[in-house]
Each structure stands twice: as structure tokens, then as C-alpha cells.
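Researcher: Let's run the pair from yesterday's discussion. Sequence first, then C-alpha cells, for each.
Model: Starting with the first of the pair.
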Amino acid sequence: MSDEPIRVLLADDHPVYRDGLAALLGSMPGIEVVGTAATGLEAVERAAELQPDVVVMDVRMPELDGIEATRRVAADSPHIGVVMLTMSEEDATLFAAMRAGARGYLLKGANQAEIGRAITSVAHGEAIFGPAIARRVAEFFAGGPPADDGAFPQLTPREREILSLVAAGRSNAQIASALFLSQKTVRNNVSNIFAKLHVADRAEAIVRARDAGLGR
């Protein structure tokens, strides 16, 4: 049984990158690419149909983003491991992927050995992150006292998430990109946050948030 190849589904909306990666993975001993998907929705459907050991998933895809697709795959088939392969180094994207159930997270600059190691590890039930991402995770948890979960109870979970990114110095455009929201939605949430915290501007909101441990 252990001699059987690891069956991989590859989900990425860029055909050149997807086909190149499929050929690369297919050339590696012990790995078999059993299918590809061009959208998040297709990834969910193909995962349910093919039941691969591992899904290699891009974050940004049409119809359904990779985070939500990962959440659905993990809910429908918990035994399938998901490795996120993405250009995004945003902390919010990384931790959203982890919360969704991803067991691996690599940047698209990862080399063949790193990708192969991640797929093999995740197929065996382990969690793995590329060196740069692992460093970010370590820095996040070593970054001082955690945010007080009781702070700002008047805010919704989404507003707290956005406030944390504001406190980390992210612009509205960067927050929108990281959370897959429109800039208008982010602006509306930021306005609500200012009103609820009774602050006049972004600088004052940042001070309040950092005092509570957000944005580390």
C-alpha cells in the first residue's frame, strides 16, 4: 500500500502555470497528478469526485477563492490534505488558510524539492510551511502578548479582523486584497469601527488597537 503514489489534484486558474506545475509534479517519483481545476468551485467538485490524497490549491481563483474552496474540501473530505501554493505573503491570508483547514502553505517561488516535500508530508497527515512562511508564523506567535479577546466587544469578528490589519499598518486596498473584500466594504467597516470606538481618525484607531494587542 505504501508503494502507491500520492494522488494529487492541482487547482490554479493560470493555465500555463497549472500545466507546467502538473508536468513538474508528474515527473516526481511517488506523485501522480490525477486531475486539475481552473476555479475554486471546480476544485471542490473535482476533489469530491477524485478523492485525491492532496489538493495543491491557489488562493486567488474565480467563482470561489482558494480559502473557501479549502474550507469546503476540508468539511466534505477531512482526509484530503490541502497545500496552499500562492503569491500572497499577507499574514491575514496565511492564517485564514490555516483556519480553513490547509495543512501546508508555500509561496509560488518554492522549488521542486520544497513542493514535493510539502505534498509528501501533508499526505502523511503532517502540517508543513515553507521556510519564509514558517518564520512568519514563529514571529507572529513570538510577537508579544496576544490580543485581548475581550477587547472591543462592540465590534463584530470581521471588524476586529479589519481593525487588526489597520493596526498592522495595512491600507484599505491591502486589507481588501488580503480578505477578498471590495474596497467599499472595507471602507464601510472602517467607518463603523471608528464610530464604535469613538475615534476621530485612523491614527487614533491604531493607537487604541495596539494598546489592546492587535496588529502584532
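Model: Moving on to the second of the pair.
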Amino acid sequence: MIRLLIIDDHAMFRAGLRKVFGDEQDIEVVDEAGDWRDGLAKLERHAVDVLLLDINLPDRSGLEVLDVLRPRFPGLRTIVLSMYCEPQYAMRAMRSGACGYVAKDMEVDELVAAIRHVARGERFVTPSIAASMLDAIDGEAASPHKRLSPRESQILRLMVAGEALTVIGSQLIINVKTVSTYRRRILAKLGVSSNAELVQYAMRHRLVD
């Protein structure tokens, strides 16, 4: 039996899922929650095999919740439910520990199949999202700056604008040593060795106005 917990802020959607899974002999919905705090409490209370996690939750996104879940529930298999089919969301979810990423408007039999795949220790994304993810990976290989994190991209733009590391640290409220660490990572990811080369890279790829 696959023990399932649902975290989604729409009560009618949760009720619909409960009805769907009620017809499946190998899936049991052990509980549900409308927000991430209640969901964490119920994960502590129940033995859960698979979690269905909405990407849009009050106060905190499902992607942020994934970062909380990974160290606290290392054996939990999570499927992210989303209205977003853009590959960056799916890739962010999978990198944060999700085992599946599915669209909320997918067919019921596909969702049931996804749960069974994930429960067996496999990963699951719908074919259309998988194709988009592969295209995005190809794009990252061609453009190294696409592999930068949001914070790294922010610091890159400030550096290209000529801001000193101390000024960047003050603006972002982080230690200058942390800014220096980000700088090293940015240079390494972009394959450049100096600020001058960084500026040239940014201009070549039109990363600055």
C-alpha cells in the first residue's frame, strides 16, 4: 500500500484527489493539509511514502518547502503539483529533492502512474515537461551564464556595473567575504579569470543594458 499525504491550499482540489485515489486499491490518502506548516506536522505524525506538494502555498512556495523537507524526511518521495510547465520550475524542483513534477491539469491515470513510479524509487515527469527540461539543459550548455543562481546573477550585474565588493556586500546585506566567494564561483562558471573578462562576457551575451 502506498501511503500518500497531500499538501494543497485548495480544499476542493484535495477532495477531488481523495475521491480519485479512493478507487485505487494500492493507494491510501493518510491525511491532507492546506498549508506547509500543517503539512510538516502531519508528516511528523504519519508514516508517508509519497507526498503530493502544491508549488503555490500560502506564505511559502512548494519549492522552498522542498528545501525544508529534504534534511528532515530524507526517505520521503515528493511529487510537485504545479500550474507551471516551464522547465526552470521542474529543474529547480528536481534539484531540491523532488522525485516527480506534474501539471495540475494532467490526466488522472497519469497522476496515478506518477505516484506508482515514484513509490518504486523512480523519477517521473510528463513527456512534455521532460522535453522542455532537455531543451533547457542544452541551452545551459551553450550559455554558461544560465547556470548561475539568482544571487550569482544579481552579483554579476553589480560587478559589471563597477560596484566594489564592499559596496555589493552592503547593498545585499551580506559579508564581503561571502561576496568574494560568489565572485570566484561566477568567474569559474563563466570560464573567465578577471573582472575585465567578466565585463566582456556580459557585453557579448547582452547581460547588461
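Researcher: Give me one sentence on the second I can quote.
Model: The mean pLDDT is 88.
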